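Field reference: sequence -> structure
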Amino acid sequence: NVVEDVVQWVTISRVCGELAVSRSLGDPDFKDMASQPECPFFAFPDGHDRTFSSDLLLATPEVQHVKIEEGDEFLVLASDGLWDVLNLEQVVQTVKKFMGAAGKGTGSAFASADDGPGEAQDMTCDDIAKELCRLALRLGSADNITVILVFFHW
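Structure field:
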């Protein structure tokens, strides 16, 4: 069949074909998998022993402790939808670009990506966070995108 030769199917991964990962963290059907002899509805790869050694998902967050010091300009808290398409340096450069042209880091007015030189418009932390979300979407992020931006005024 010509169509089958040309079309490539995209599969969205779900836990055991049922739940999106974020919804299944607390679902009891996906807990204590190690005690079950075999999971009949899971697509195991060839050669797998068809058993689990632990739960399918762990709700243990990745946590980092960072001391905020005088001179730190801002904090970006974001979901993986942002980090999937932008690295730390790109996010910092983007925020600084919005901060730099008009407000000089004061938090009162920031340059929009659409502004030309000297055409700054007022942008809040929320505006810049939304711009980061829009940028992630334009770059093709297919995940949930949440961005919280906090400016420090020393």
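Note: DSSP finds five helices and two strands in the chain.
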